[in-house]
Design goal:
Elements: E1 9-10, E2 15-18, E3 21-24, E4 31-34, E5 43-46, H1 49-62, H2 80-93, H3 100-114, H4 118-128, H5 133-140, H6 149-157
Antiparallel strand pairs: 1-2, 2-5, 3-4
């Protein structure tokens, strides 16, 4: 998210292209563009109409930040504006403070839980930038405690 630039967003086509990530260097303490963790992390994602509308409104309200970044602070590209806004919303809602990465895990769990078939799981795997479906299932399926009822019913149907 921190590495997103407006050049990576196609508002008309409702899509975003993930091609880099931002990391703070231990040597100089500054943020730098770096390659994604894995080749599968480079991906093209379609946006929901709602999210495309929110990004359109953000661009209209904020314009492009330094270096054309979507998320920036008064002093340039920093993690602080995103994290501090999230922390403020958590406190206002009276819930435990969470990180943007925890939101990723929560949404990923909801997506995996909502999958109706293998093709849905493959889409979620691609969205998350996982190298394999095994990685997605190993990470999120242990949260699913549905019991054997659905599988038994499916076997009976077959």
């Amino acid at each position: 998210m921190l590495g997103l630039r407006w050049e990576d967003v196609d508002l008309a086509g409702k899509a975003v292209f993930i091609r880099r990530q931002r990391q703070r260097s231990g040597e100089d303490g500054l943020w730098h563009d770096v390659e994604t963790k894995t080749p599968s992390s480079v991906r093209h994602l379609r946006l929901s109409p709602f999210l495309a509308g929110e990004l359109y409104a953000l661009k209209g309200a904020e314009g492009a930040g330094p270096g054309d970044f979507l998320f920036f602070g008064r002093k340039g590209i920093r993690k602080h504006p995103v994290v501090s806004a999230l922390q403020g919303h958590c406190r206002a809602a009276g819930v435990p403070v969470i990180s943007p990465h925890e939101i990723r895990h929560t949404v990923a769990f909801w997506l995996v839980a909502a999958c109706k078939d293998m093709s849905d799981l493959i889409v979620v795997q691609r969205w998350l930038g996982h190298t394999s479906l095994k990685e997605t299932l190993d990470t999120y399926s242990h949260y699913l405690k549905r019991g054997d009822g659905g599988a038994i019913s499916t076997l009976d149907d077959v």
